[in-house]
Design brief:
The complex is a heterodimer of chains A (359) and B (710). With 359 residues, chain A is of the alpha+beta class. Chain A contains nine helices and 18 strands. Chain A folds into two domains: 202 residues, SH3 type barrels (Roll), CATH 2.30.30; 132 residues, Immunoglobulin-like (Sandwich), CATH 2.60.40. The longest helix of chain B has 20 residues. Classes of the chains: A alpha+beta (359), B alpha/beta (710).
């Protein structure tokens, strides 16, 4: 066999594997006792899945188990550029053409807003890495600078690790002029790239749809609350932040009158993951001062608020985005919140917002 | 300032978590009188707990802070603090920087203020404890382990002490510094002005708002330029000071940013006036008034500053009365002032602290000089004085100003006095001459009746030309008639309603008459309460309070009109109307209410309301009501003290914390000596003893204190 024929064969196998990786359902669906029409449609088209169904399941499981060690593990981390993340598996599913779209991995490139990251899709099989791709090493495969999307933060699922800074830089550098279709590129790679773009596109669309569903859900919850709250704006999907910056209407508002050394805080009790009881309380601020460790906001919560669970504190001042305290310690009815990253806070015009969680 | 709320209890909570306690060390540079735990006895345990958690230099800092807080107000500190502190001071490794023994320091007078410095591109605020006492004259500075004040700054403080005329006293200048991490040297002479102002405020009874200042002072009384103004202003803002006083330096203007008002001053007198006599928001007006060399400008600004400044200027060099009598004063300027006063009088509650001193400066000598010059304005001054005397129940003043008004009325009309002003006097006279003396006749004086008839006819004529015409003065006359009749008793209810409809008709629906119309609703509420027609009272009270339902949520803090509160609580007390929300508001806020009319009535009715459910609170409310009656204004209000005394008398003995006999006899004597209607008070004045007098007062409360007088 000639070298070119070997190369062609390798490429062909890699592409077949890519199709399996991207479009074949996981075992939990493939081996389902009650296959649905989508699965039947897929099995009719996909010889690999037919073969797997005919094989011994336990043998497959053993193979899968042995492969687990080769897969990158999960890391607990806040999303930041240079990390490889999976997307929420809840977004996986059939596409209407008998293809099961599996969650791709992506390289986070830049945080573009409080809720969104710019990310490039990655693929594990380095044999499909070509011109305009960035090699990320053996563990993570390669990044696709020509396949970049804005991904909602909420749809990131697991962090698998961090790439070398040089790889992140290269990917960012290639972003501007990078196109999937390039003259002289192997037509099979060309078609792989189109498929990759389609997958990322589909996934991000699903993520955005889910995001807007969540937003609508939050808004509808907020609308329900609005009989008791005045919600000035929704800049975030963090329910806590929204609640902290909402104000009461009606009788509850009449009860809480804060003096100049006080702030009105909202008190929340969680039941089944939702804030069930909300009221206002005037919090006495005992210290608001920039110190060596950063801005300190300290205060006392009224005694009548019992079963304190936690306190969250935000700092807001005109012309500056809100920022949440990095740590807020509660002891008895006192709390101390520190904002180490807040540069030159303006205590003359700014003020803290406090949210109290009770049990 | 934003650092004055921390306290020992809070600090002790963090003492078990050293990293958290460390965050609070800077609070120890801000001593204040509220650091002590509510339970004084727990202080010693908590403080020892904190001391044990601190490193030696911070232990000294903690002791300094507690000591400074104690010196600021020894009465709010736990008894025994002095001894506790002396014992601990002996044992700490780093000595306290207080430059005199604790035993001596306790007898000095101490105040806290701040200095603001600039260095390394930023402003820095340092709290300073100023002490004045009797020792060898001179200024004492702390002894720190290292030098933290340069010679120039020490000299500036000594100059300030000299200028503040404290040379016969000794003084301490104690900056609160963390001497392990001092953050730089106190340097330069810009602390001269803040030190001078702080020393001056030591001898002033006036509470000083939290202001900052900077400026070099010299012995001629001038304030000299300093550096770093903008950085210092920024530091003042960050500390949320209400004003920042700085030398008026050519070419430098600080742009104002909330919450700190920058005030450029060009003399120490201006700076002192701002420091001692301005409240947040009027610091610049204060400086401009003091600077003003033009009498017209001076008079036009009078209503924009604080009453204490007017008092100060008047006592100092009679600046206000001199300006009012000045030949250089234009009529328009005085008219502007009187118009401003017209507006202020309409504000509810009336700004008494400002109007009082202005009217005091407009004394009878000032008026005598104005009568021939501008009789119409003199007449208006009389009306203002009459209104003031009525509102304070000062019948002697009422009589004086009535005479004055009479003396200038003819000339005033010739000079073009407006009809409203001319007729207003009768309305005021009715209150001053009759009601305030407890003289209640259903028929008004002849003068009043004839004018009432005249204005009624005037409306008829007006309506012929313009059917929708209103006549405010008629509405006022009818309102006064309602008052007059309601004081005479429920038997005049039908006449009251007749005048009510006439008044409503005369005021029309004009929005600007809303307050006048609401006032009528207030009168009707009281009239129906006196007549025990509670449903009708409730109906008018709802209109007056602009509520459709008494159970609807109301933020009572936002209801600023004390007469609305007085009316509502009277309704609650008379009808046993349950309103838990308002009752809890009363118990939360009664201590903060000002000692002026009509809060004494509000508290008395509060006492009645709480007598069955919370006699302890009822006793406190009666006590406070009595105190206001005794301290505020003239004999009219003082007589109302009988209401609170009879309320206290009916309470169980354990809630009677004052000498009822003494106070009752005092009030009876005051009524006997006054120009109040003796016949009206015969039942109490002729009672066999003080107890019978209080029993009679309780029994006859409706007749003795009718309508709005209870």
């Amino acid at each position: 066999m000639k070298l070119s024929e070997i190369e062609d064969l390798t490429l062909e196998m890699a592409l077949e594997q890519a199709a399996l990786t991207r479009f074949c359902p996981p075992d939990s669906i493939l081996f389902s006792q009650h296959p649905d029409k989508q699965l039947e449609k897929h099995i009719n088209k996909c010889s690999a899945c037919r073969e797997r169904l005919e094989m011994n399941i336990s043998a497959w499981k053993k193979i899968l188990e042995s492969m687990q060690d080769l897969m990158p593990g999960e890391i607990e981390a806040e999303p930041c550029p240079g990390q490889i993340w999976t997307m929420d598996s809840a977004l996986e599913g059939w596409d209407g053409y008998g293809r099961y779209i599996n969650s791709p991995h992506m390289l986070l490139l830049d945080k573009v807003s409080r809720e969104t990251f710019l990310a490039a899709q990655t693929y594990w099989d380095i044999s499909l890495c070509s011109q305009g791709d960035v090699d990320l090493g053996r563990t993570f495969g390669f990044a696709q600078p020509w396949n970049v999307k804005h991904v909602p933060l909420r749809c990131l699922s697991r962090c698998l690790g961090q790439v070398e800074p040089v790889a992140l830089r290269q990917t960012n550098e290639l972003l501007r002029n990078s196109q999937a279709e390039q003259p002289g590129l192997n037509p099979q790679i060309q078609s792989f790239r189109l498929q990759e773009q389609e997958i990322f596109e589909t996934f991000v669309l699903r993520a955005q749809n889910k995001e807007s569903q969540v937003q609508n859900m939050v808004k509808s919850i907020m609308e329900k609350f609005s009989q008791r709250f005045k919600i000035s704006d929704i800049r975030t999907l963090d329910m806590g932040e929204i609640l902290a910056h909402s104000s009461f209407t009606g009788q509850a508002a009449a009860m809480a009158a804060a003096t100049s050394e006080q702030v009105v805080a909202n008190v929340v009790r969680h039941e089944a993951g939702m804030p069930q009881l909300v009221k206002e309380a005037a919090i006495e601020l005992t210290s608001v001062r920039p110190g060596r460790e950063g801005l300190l906001v300290a205060g006392r919560i009224p005694e009548e608020i019992s079963s304190l669970q936690k306190v969250r504190v935000w700092w807001s001042e005109p012309g500056r985005p809100r920022i949440e305290a990095e740590q807020c310690t509660v002891s008895g009815h006192f709390f101390q919140a520190v904002f180490p990253d807040l540069i030159d806070p303006d205590t003359g015009s700014g003020q803290p917002k406090v949210l109290i969680y009770t049990q | 300032m934003n650092d004055l709320k921390w306290n020992i209890s809070e600090l002790s909570v963090w003492s078990t978590q050293r990293d958290q306690l460390r965050l609070r060390l800077e609070d120890l540079l801000a001593p204040h009188t509220g650091i002590w735990p509510e339970d004084h006895g727990s202080f010693f345990i908590l403080a020892d707990q904190i001391l044990d958690s601190l490193d030696p230099p911070d232990q000294s800092l903690f002791l300094s802070c507690c000591t400074a807080s104690w010196l600021l107000d020894k009465f709010s500190a736990p008894p025994g603090f002095g001894q506790w502190a002396a014992e601990r001071i002996e044992t700490v490794k780093v000595p306290l920087p207080l430059p005199l023994p604790l035993n001596e320091a306790r007898h000095w007078n101490w105040r806290r203020s701040s200095i603001i410095l600039s260095s390394s591109g930023q402003g820095r605020l340092i709290n300073v404890l100023y002490g004045v006492g009797n020792a060898k004259p001179g200024v004492y500075f702390p002894q720190w382990p290292q030098q933290l004040m340069d010679m120039e700054s020490r000299k500036a403080v000594v100059t300030a002490w000299n200028m503040a005329e404290l040379q016969e006293k000794s003084a301490v200048f104690w900056p609160m510094l963390d001497y392990v991490r001092p953050g730089g040297l106190i340097h330069g002479s810009s602390l001269g002005l803040p030190a001078y102002l702080a020393f001056r405020s030591m001898t002033s009874p006036q509470p000083v708002f939290t202001m900052g200042a900077t400026g070099k002072i010299c012995k001629t009384g001038r304030i000299l330029p300093v550096h770093g103004l903008k950085l210092k202003y920024q530091a003042a803002r960050m500390a949320r000071l209400s004003a920042f006083i700085y030398p008026d330096q050519e070419g430098i203007r600080i742009e104002e940013a909330e919450p700190t008002e920058p005030v450029a001053v060009d003399s120490m007198e201006e700076a002192e006036a701002v420091w001692l006599h301005s409240v947040p928001g009027i610091a610049n007006e204060t400086a401009l008034l003091v600077r003003s060399h033009n009498h017209g400008e001076f008079v036009r600004r009078l209503c924009r500053v604080s009453g204490s400044l007017i008092d100060w200027l008047e006592k100092k060099n009679q600046a206000v009365s001199r300006a009012l009598c000045s030949t250089a004063l234009a009529k328009d300027d005085l008219m502007t002032l009187l118009n401003q006063m017209d507006q202020l009088i309409k504000i509810t509650p009336m700004p008494r602290n400002l109007l009082g001193p202005v009217l005091k400066a407009m004394n009878d000598q000032t008026l005598d000089k104005l009568i021939n010059k501008w009789p119409d304005l003199a007449y208006r001054i009389c009306n203002h004085q009459l209104r003031w005397a009525s509102s304070t129940g000062d019948n002697t003043s009422s009589a004086l100003w009535e005479e004055k008004a009479k003396a200038c009325s003819d000339k005033a009309v010739q000079a073009g006095l407006s009809l409203d002003d001319l007729f207003l006097e009768d309305v005021l006279r009715m209150v001053g001459s009759y009601h305030n003396r407890f003289i209640f006749y259903p028929d008004p004086p002849e003068n009043f009746a004839s004018k009432l008839q005249a204005v009624e006819e005037m409306l008829v004529i007006l309506r012929r030309c313009r059917p929708e015409a209103n006549l405010k003065i008629l509405g006022k006359y009818c309102g006064t008639m309602i008052q007059n009749l309601a004081f005479c008793g429920p038997e005049y209810l039908s006449n009251i309603l007749e005048y009510y409809h006439k008044a409503r008709e005369a005021f029309g629906q004009a929005k600007q008459e809303k307050d006048e119309i609401l006032r009528l609703e207030n009168y009707l509420t009281y009239a129906f309460l006196d007549a025990k027609q509670y449903e009708q009272a409730e109906k008018h009270l709802k209109v007056y309070l602009e509520l459709s339902d008494f159970n609807q949520p109301v933020n009572w803090d936002e209801v600023k009109d004390p007469f609305k509160h007085a009316c509502f609580i009277r309704f609650m007390a008379d009808t046993d109307f349950p309103n838990e929300h308002y009752a809890s508001w009363i118990s939360r806020t009664w201590k903060k209410k000002p000692g002026v009319h009509p809060w004494q009535l509000w508290m008395n009715n509060g006492g009645r309301l709480f007598t069955p459910s919370d006699p302890e609170l009822a006793g406190s409310l009666f006590d406070r009501s009595l105190k206001i009656c005794q301290d505020f204004g003239g004999p009219t209000v003082r007589a109302m003290g009988l209401l609170s005394l009879s309320g206290l008398y009916m309470l169980d003995k354990k809630y009677q914390r004052i000498d009822l006999k003494k106070h009752t006899l005092e009030i009876l004597a005051s009524i006997g000596k006054s120009d109040l209607n003796q016949e009206h008070f015969a039942c109490v004045l002729q009672a066999a003893d003080w107890k019978s007098a209080l029993e009679m007062a309780d029994l006859n409360r409706r007749e003795l204190f009718p309508f709005t007088y209870r």
